[in-house]
């Protein structure tokens, strides 16, 4: 009673809810429809046209001082003007905000209070003579 060769690992693999499907076994990777392939080819053509246009502007001997790259402009806008949608207040960021805001303030309060107490103690012991100051 020969059962035949054992099934391959790809046939035995079942997706786990804790682990995503590897790209080699994902049907979206290797089994793309003609519409998907056409859309990818169109995106690749647009990207290559933009790259060619940028290279022509870059290598132009009489080019303007600034070459505007639309992708770079979009990236700069997203990075600088659109900050808050990517920020998530967590206990760590709240703690760091409080530490950076209150930490230096509390440090200088402690330093100045300790200095004032030290001077006051020396004055009471008679070891420190207050200098005359108009101000």
Structure characteristics:
mainly alpha; elongated
Describe the structure.
The chain has two domains: 22-87, no CATH class; 90-127. The chain has helices at residues 9-12, 27-30, 34-58, 70-80, 91-125. With 135 residues, it is mainly alpha-helical. Helices cover 59% and strands 0% of the residues. The chain is built from five helices and no strands. It is elongated and about 100 Å long. The mean pLDDT is 83. Complex I is composed of 45 different subunits. It comes from Malurus elegans. It is found in: Mitochondrion inner membrane.
Order of helical and strand elements: HHHHH
Average pLDDT score: 83
What's the number of structural domains?
2
Q: Which band does the percent of strand residues land in?
A: under 5%
Family: Belongs to the complex I NDUFB4 subunit family.
Subcellular location: Mitochondrion inner membrane
GO cellular component, one term: mitochondrial inner membrane
Subunit structure: Complex I is composed of 45 different subunits.
